[in-house]
Amino acid sequence: MTLKFNGKKPSRRAFLQGAATMGAGLTLGGQARAADPAIAVKPWMQELGDGVDTSPYGMPSEYEAHVKRRNVEWLTADTVSSINFTPLHELDGIITPNGLCFERHHAGVARLDPREYRLMINGLVDTPMVFTLEDLMRFPRENHVYFLECAANSGMEWRGAQLNGCQFTHGMIHNVMYTGVPLRLILEEAGVRTAGKWLLPEGADASAMTRSVPLEKAMDDCLVAFKMNGEALRPEQGYPVRLVVPGWEGNMWVKWLRRIEVGDQPWHHREETSKYTDLLADGSARRFTWEMDAKSVITSPSPQAPITHGKGHTVITGVAWSGRGTIPRVDVTLDGGINWHQARMSGPSLEKSMHRFYYEFDWDGSPLLLQSRAHDSTGYVQPTKDMLRKIRGENSIYHNNGIQTWAINAEGIAENVEIS
């Protein structure tokens, strides 16, 4: 779009003077709107701002203070063994800022002194070894962007719509760049014996978190990570070192990693027997359901991000991910699945990482039933919740990757609903 004054293209000075005189802005459609007082000269245009050392560690604008992790108070008896949720509805792109990555603790945040940090490798190895943090950082390191999703993400929705906001229905997930050492290099240093088939990572927190991990996975793509998004892990994310198990449920990503034992069979500890198994309708349980299936959610519009601009051009956006590869396609429906439209994928397409999608349309103010449906690179298509229930029943709280529905009314307000 080119503006002209008296038939001539204006200079920058003339344009600014003319704009100030008009006191008007342009909306997306190019329509002129009434003089807007927000265009007037403001105090921040006339006063010096803070110097470079006012905030040695940069912080978000005070106007973004509402963008934060949130807990569900009634979910657990005490927050030391609880969870808070990533505000997905406030984010865009695919990278989760470190301060917004959800937390899940079984005994609160362990506060380790990095000078006293040690990682032991023992069990069925040729040479039991102990590494300092400095030792680990001398190994060849790699950088990878991965999502981390709790197996219980969306778990409260198994029996129907419960929580009104994608932060609470889908916010047990984050997506960051991890920097660390391939676990196989550390295991090779110790020398895994032929009988070694399983690993038992152990955390240094008071819960002594342990999970059995197949050696095959460990030698494939697991990392012993010490940085996320370029900076040191935060205490709540396992500082100074955590295990990264790409594409698999978050409970296996042991934080404050202190020991890895090599064994010849799984250990069947508490967090893989009484918890993190999928109880079926007949009372039997699926075990070792490590991989996270393809999943997606529309983050805006959603209950915490209603449509506020009224009728007209509207942008739908959300995220999709799969523990088995990439997401080449996401479909969006406005009418609860009667008609599907292919969304526009934008940004990097990385293995076992979040993918951002958009769908733009002109909203006429009619009620909407918004859903998204992910397709992953293996050909798997995200199912409905009813499809999952027919196979697994309603006893489980884990691995709910069913399609989510938001109902939008004529005022643009969104609500968590289910449709059959």
Automatic annotation (TrEMBL):
The name under which this protein is listed is Sulfite dehydrogenase
- The residues covered by the Moybdenum cofactor oxidoreductase dimerisation domain are 287-404
Name any Gene Ontology BP term.
sulfur compound metabolic process
NCBIfam families cross-referenced by the UniProt entry: sulfite_DH_soxC, TAT_signal_seq
Database matches in Pfam families? Mo-co_dimer, Oxidored_molyb
- Annotated SUPFAM superfamilies: E set domains, Oxidoreductase molybdopterin-binding domain
Task: Tell me where in this chain the Oxidoreductase molybdopterin-binding domain is found.
Answer: 106-267
Q: Lineage, please?
A: Bacteria, Pseudomonadati, Pseudomonadota, Alphaproteobacteria, Rhodobacterales
